[in-house]
Amino acid sequence: MNDILLPYKKYLPVGFKFSNNFINYIQSNYKDEIYPWYFLIQSAKYIDGRFVCVRRLYPNRNLIPFAHWNPSDDIVCFDGDDTSGDPKVFFVHTYASPGWEDRGNVENFDVWLEIAKEQSKEFKADCE
């Protein structure tokens, strides 16, 4: 496992693989490119907190949280049941009742990243 991903190690299901594009992106100098989204990998405490929360609130879902939309409780999670190395991404509104947390999904990290970049542009334009 890549060293940058070690804080995730204790939470990952057997066979789960992060996509190479996710790994490459979090190792890059992305800085504010997707603000106000931020990656949980910035702190092991963020990862621990979100995993505890998601597992407590949605025990029937195998979610791997990786990013948070800062102005809200929305997070994005990889499908923990996917072993393809290119997992689906779920939009989750944390603290919603089970069944109401699901805000949709996209095919993979690459699709989510394009959405996040667009959301970032819109957010920054609204703040000007």
UniProtKB/TrEMBL annotation:
It comes from the Bacteria. This is SMI1/KNR4 family protein. It comes from Commensalibacter nepenthis. The lineage of its organism: Bacteria, Pseudomonadati, Pseudomonadota, Alphaproteobacteria, Acetobacterales.
